[in-house]
Amino acid sequence: MLGYDRQLDYVFCVVERDGEYVYSNLADPDAGTEQQDVAYFRQVLDRLGVVVPESMFTEVEADQRGRIGNRVVNHGKGKS
Fold first, then answer.
1. pTM exceeds 0.85
2. Each residue's pLDDT tens digit in the chain (80 positions)?
3. Domain that holds residue 17
4. Overall domain count for the chain
5. Residue 3: beta bridge partners?
6. Is residue 62 one of the residues assigned to a domain?
7. DSSP 10-79
8. In Å, how far from its chain's centre is CA 79?
9. 76: which of 30, 45, 58, 60 lies 20 to 30 Å off by Cα?
């Protein structure tokens, strides 16, 4: 999950595998709630072997620029 939290004004990223969290920006000393560069999480996801569509980064950047919250976008199979 990659997104922008409007109320707290920060970008977040959480990766879960088999019901276990393997990454959270809150546990990352280089991210936390201070990391505002969406591109930072591209490196994190690459390191974890997680492939996501480019549209995820584009949409989160747009939400951050426009301070848009509570928006859900599906980026894969079953996209609506």
1. no
2. 999 999 989 999 999 999 999 999 999 999 988 888 999 999 999 999 999 999 999 999 999 999 887 777 777 764 44
3. 1-34
4. 1
5. 12
6. no
7. EEEEEEEETTEEEEEGGG-TTTTTT---HHHHHHHHHHHT----HHHHHHHHHHHHHT--S-----STT-
8. 18
9. 30
